[in-house]
Design brief:
The complex is a heterotrimer of chains A (about 300), B (about 270) and C (about 350). Helices cover about 75% and strands about 0% of the residues of chain A. Chain A is an all-alpha fold. Chain A has a two-stranded antiparallel ribbon with strand order 1-2. The two termini of chain A are about 40 Å apart. Chain B has a single domain, classed as MetI-like (MetI-like fold, Orthogonal Bundle). By secondary structure, chain C is an alpha+beta fold. Chain C has 2 domains: about 230 residues, P-loop containing nucleotide triphosphate hydrolases (Rossmann fold, 3-Layer(aba) Sandwich); about 120 residues, RNA polymerase II/Efflux pump adaptor protein, barrel-sandwich hybrid domain (OB fold (Dihydrolipoamide Acetyltransferase, E2P), Beta Barrel). Chain C has a 6-stranded mixed β-sheet with strand order 6-7-8-3-9-10, with helices on both faces. Chain C has a 6-stranded mixed β-sheet with strand order 13-12-11-15-21-14, with no helix packed on it. In chain C, strands 16-20-17-18-19 form a 5-stranded antiparallel β-sheet, with no helix packed on it. The mean pLDDT of chain C is about 90. The chains are: A mainly alpha (about 300), B mainly alpha (about 270), C alpha+beta (about 350). The interface between A and B is large, with 89 and 88 residues.
Chain lengths: ~300, ~270, ~350
């Protein structure tokens, strides 16, 4: 009786209602995300001959992925490009977030944020393709600069290489970097800045000693939210990267769809995920002291 | 003026952000088949040509169907999760919500590859259905983010008050909760629709023989003579996106005004 | 108390390991204005919400009109609530808010409902406001709408969760009076949750003082003020001077104590209650002591001290007086009658006190 009563009270409790309500979404994520990712992990330990999958456990794919110079070069390049994209994007984004948060009147802030987010929602493929048009040998940038007399020869270091990938991705991920920093800056109590100046700091030292440390959670979020997805980007390296700008995602696609070597592709995907997560965790760990405090 | 240099920087940054979008209509109305300056004069023939490509029409219809289904399913899933997250404490809440939100940061190629693996292992064919499964996965976190803020702006005692005044849980939801979060729901539908309509990599992996619009576009980018038509199509898509986003923003703001809360910024 | 309408029988409430209500037993009468008073976190709001049906109880029983309310959800209970935030539906007009609970009343036609809404608005002084948008109202108006919306259903009990805490001082005092009048007018049992002791004293027929999930004292305001059941209640309600005391003799006639700084007194049993456990203390309210002005003579015990500090309130002045033999100055209050001069720091004070209003905590 008492047990029954307790069960009855559990089913009327918050915990039960919450679990029941969240279960459709959670089940969906488990079935279509957790299970598939686990499957990729499993396959990475198998081998494939044409269309036959051999399910004996082996580390052969990992050995190949880690020893073959081509794959190692692609991994390294992906990390370098992602790192460069992250650095560029966040460094370029910070002043914008700062400007909107501190120098735009409150009534116009959401308009600015809206303006910043619009380009992000327009066709990604077409945006990347247009960067190719802008950066190309006869592209908009080169013809304009030549027309204005700044350069004699078209610049060639801006298309079909890693630079082009960095520029294009920095454009694509701009709002992802601006928004978290903006949110962090918005949360800063303005009287803290006045207090700092009242205690003898000037504008620059106030920024360094108060504003920046308080904005760090936003910067960390911006770094992660740019770094993690860019490493898996496929379209940009393919369209503007040229042979020397290809990244790991292009190889994963090739293994899966062209070479019919899903196990090797899976191993590459797993390695990429592990690398990204490791770097992300180290980065969060390094910034631990900024991330504490009340949520 | 305060922030003078910053303001100049901000304007330059906006130019950088908008450069591709501004160029798009220039080339779409340009009377020349090469995408380069100088422009050759005004024409609408690329837009006319759009109407004569059956494969494009199939792709558009396919994409629309996928986007509408994705929008509805991910908003429904988002409603459940956002409600549970904002209203209840339950075991393993952080873990569960974390898993659901992971696609927000997971490289899309991972989602694409892992779904492909499962479909092949289960022997299921690729179709619009498999694309929808993938799109719902990546759109749901966006829906949750939007609906979370709707639910957070909703004072819990409003629902208690309705219940206290004799309504059932269901009629409370219908009379109080739903009207007050409706702007969030509309906004979520529009955002999920836009993401799905634009998504390429998952569709590329999972689409089978029925290409979506971005997959079709991708196949056309290889042929230089098709580029002006792609520009025309892109112009229409961009115009459509801006229209949808402006509508979503309008509803979001109306929602804020209606509940009397402060406006705290954009979509994310 | 009149006929008991609500009975709380040994109500316990746990949130996980946290014991929020620890055996609440009380009866609340028909037509009574009853207050739950205590510091934040004492369980008063939780108790109110268990009566409303928003929170289940872990053990015990809540009876309303003799009927056990377990498993009766909030929407089926004859109670209505005025929320701390007022919970005015922002998408509905004032009239739609007030008439919200009438939706399912099939016995009333639209015209009858409209009349009820108008009457309810008139009752709270908002006649003619029906068409206004709810979010355009001021704090005081929202509160009236919340009251009208709850009272229109003629509940047996109206539950008020800190309804005045969001108002400014003047508005709050005005609403206190209006709420008392309204309660007399409708004759419904009101249960008020508040952390403001003055509010509880002003408004209530009876007060339950709560600490840490338990009722420390349940009585009418005057008893709670004059005869607090424990040192803790005495400390929470109003201002109390605590002076070290020593019990000299106990007999049938009473207890003889020596109060530091004041002198001897004989107290009867009603003046003695539970203390903090660190020896006996005497408690005196500031207004139970008086200062003698030049030329005045006293009826009672007189001691001399020195004025350490003067706090002027306009109608009142609080004096802090150092008495011989104690470290902390005692605080006493004087009304500034007939433009009487305020004494200054350093003046000699002749303090009169009355043994009849002393409490002994032991």
């Amino acid at each position: 009786m008492a047990g029954q009563d307790r069960t009855g009270r559990f089913w009327r409790s918050d915990a039960a209602s919450g679990l029941i309500l969240v279960s459709p979404t959670a089940l969906y994520a488990i079935l279509l995300l957790a299970v598939p990712v686990a499957m990729v992990l499993a396959i990475s330990f198998w081998t494939q001959n044409y269309l036959e999958i051999d399910r004996t456990f082996t580390l052969k794919n990992y050995a190949e992925a880690l020893s073959e110079p081509l794959y190692r070069q692609l991994m390294l390049r992906s990390l370098t490009i992602s790192g460069a994209v992250t650095l560029t994007t966040v460094v370029l984004a910070f002043p914008i977030a700062y400007f909107v948060s501190f120098h735009v009147s409150p009534s116009r802030k959401s308009l600015w944020i809206f303006l910043i987010t619009i380009p992000f929602w327009t066709s990604y493929l077409i945006r990347v393709f247009l960067w190719k048009v802008i950066l190309g040998f006869n592209g908009v940038l080169n013809t304009s600069l030549q027309g204005l007399g700044f350069i004699d020869e078209p610049l060639t270091f801006i298309l079909y290489n890693a630079n082009a990938v960095v520029i294009t991705l920095a454009h694509a991920y701009a709002p992802f970097a601006i928004l978290p920093i903006f949110v962090a800056l918005e949360k800063i109590d303005r009287s803290l800045l006045e207090a700092s100046q009242d205690l003898g700091e000037n504008r620059v030292t106030t920024f360094l000693r108060v504003t920046l440390p308080l904005a760090m959670p936003g910067v960390v979020a911006a770094v992660l939210i740019v770094f993690i997805p860019t490493i898996g980007d496929y379209v940009t390296p393919r369209l503007v990267g040229g042979p020397n700008g290809l990244m790991i995602a292009n190889m994963i696609q090739t293994q899966f769809l062209k070479l019919n070597n899903a196990p090797l592709g899976a191993a590459l995907a797993v390695i990429a995920m592990v690398m990204v997560s490791t770097i992300a965790l180290i980065f969060v760990g390094l910034n631990r002291r900024y991330l504490r405090g009340p949520k | 003026m305060r922030g003078g240099w910053l303001r100049i920087y901000a304007l330059l940054y906006l130019v950088f952000l908008y450069a591709p979008i501004i160029l798009l209509p220039l080339f779409a109305f340009n009377n020349g088949s090469i995408i380069a300056f100088p422009l050759q004069g005004f024409t609408t023939r690329w837009f006319v040509e759009l109407t004569t490509i059956p494969a494009l029409h199939t792709a558009v219809l396919n994409s629309l169907m996928i986007a509408v289904t994705t929008a509805i399913v991910s908003t429904a899933l988002g409603l459940c999760a956002a409600r549970a997250a904002t209203r209840y404490e339950f075991p393993a809440k952080r873990g569960i919500m974390g898993l659901i939100m992971v696609p927000l940061v997971l490289p899309e190629i991972i989602v694409a590859v892992s779904l492909l693996v499962v479909m092949l292992q289960l022997g299921l064919g690729l179709s619009a259905m498999t694309v929808i499964l993938g799109h719902v996965l990546i759109c749901t976190p966006f829906s949750i983010a939007i609906l979370n803020s709707s639910f957070q702006n909703l004072d819990r005692s409003l629902e208690e008050a309705a219940f206290d005044l004799g309504e059932t849980r269901f009629s409370t939801f219908r009379l109080i909760t739903l009207p007050l979060i409706m702007p969030g729901i509309i906004s979520s539908l529009l955002i999920a629709f836009t993401i799905s309509l634009d998504e390429f990599i998952i569709a590329f992996f999972l689409t089978g023989n029925e290409p979506t619009l971005p997959v079709y576009l991708w196949s056309q980018l290889r042929f230089p003579q098709r580029i002006p038509v792609v520009m025309a199509l892109g112009t229409i898509l961009v115009a459509l996106s801006i229209l949808l986003l402006t509508t979503a923003e309008y509803f979001r703001r109306r929602g804020i005004a209606r509940t009397g809360a402060d406006d705290t910024g954009g979509f994310l | 108390m009149t006929r008991p309408l609500i009975e709380l029988r040994d109500v316990h409430k746990y949130y996980g390991d946290y014991h929020a209500l620890r055996g609440i037993t009380a009866q609340i009468g028909q037509g009574e204005f009853f207050s739950l008073l205590g510091p934040s976190g004492c369980g008063k709001t939780t108790l109110l919400r268990t009566i409303a049906g928003f929170e289940g109880i872990s053990s015990g029983a809540v009876l309303l009109d003799g009927q056990d309310m377990d498993r009766v959800p909030a929407n089926k209970r004859p109670t209505n609530m005025v929320f701390q935030s007022y919970a005015i539906f922002p998408h509905l007009s004032v009239a739609e808010n007030v008439g919200f609970g009438l939706r399912k009343r099939g016995d009333l036609n639209a015209q009858a409902k409209r009349t009820l809404v108008e009457d309810a608005l008139d009752m709270v002084g908002l006649g003619g406001y029906g068409k206004r948008a709810a979010h355009a109202l001021s704090g005081g108006q929202r509160q009236r709408v919340a009251l009208a919306r709850a009272l229109i259903l003629k509940p047996k009990v109206l539950l008020l969760d800190e309804p005045l805490s969001a108002l400014d001082r003047k508005m709050r005092e005005q609403m206190q009076v209006e709420l008392i009048k309204l309660q007399r007018h409708v004759g419904i049992t009101f249960i008020l949750v508040t952390h403001d002791q003055e509010e509880a004293l002003v408004m209530s027929d009876r007060i339950a003082v709560m600490f840490e999930g338990e009722i420390a004292q349940l009585d009418d305001p005057e008893v709670i003020y004059k005869r607090p059941a424990s040192r803790k209640v005495a400390d929470f309600i109003g201002i109390m001077n605590f002076l070290p005391a020593q019990v000299l003799e106990e007999s049938g006639a009473g207890v003889t104590v020596d109060i530091a700084g004041l002198g001897r007194a004989v107290l009867d049993a009603g003046q003695i209650t539970r203390g903090s456990g660190n020896g006996a203390e005497a408690g005196l309210r500031p207004e139970t002591m008086t200062l003698l002005y030049e030329g005045q003579s006293a009826q009672g015990e007189v001691v001399e001290g020195r004025i350490e500090e003067v706090v002027y309130y306009g109608d009142m002045t609080y004096y802090f007086v150092a008495l011989p033999g104690i470290d902390t100055p005692v605080q006493l209050s004087m009304r500034n009658l007939f433009g009487r001069d305020v004494l200054a720091v350093g003046d000699t004070a002749r303090v009169v006190w009355n043994p009849g209003s002393v409490m002994l905590f032991r």
